[in-house]
Amino acid sequence: MRKLLTLATLVLLCLVMTTASAEQAAPSLIYTEPYLLSLHPDSEMNVLWLTREPTEGYVEYGPTPALGSRVEAKLHEIKGFRTSATPEGYDPDPANNPELPVYQLIAKLEGLPSGQVVYYRATTLQGEQSQVGKRYFFKTATQAGEAFDFALLSDMQMKVKTKETMHFLGQQHKDFILFAGDLSNTPWKVGEWFDVEGCWQAPAEADRTFFECFQQDNDNSRLMQYMPIFFCPGNHEVDDQRVMTDKEMAVNDDNWSWSIYMQLFRPLYPDQEYGVGGKHWYSANYGDMHISSINVHRWQSWDGFEYPSWITKDDISPDSAQVQWLNNDLSSASQKYKWVVMHWHMVNRGDDAWFPVSTAVADPQDSAKAIYPGGDYCWDVLRPMYEAYGVNGVNYGHSHVYERYLINGVNYIEAATIGNNYRAVNDPYHPSGIQPVVEENAFRSVMLVRVDENGMNARGIQASVEDNGVGYIGREFDGEC
Ligand SMILES: [Fe+2]
Ligand SMILES: [Fe+2]
Question: Does residue 177 form part of some domain?
Answer without folding.
Answer: yes
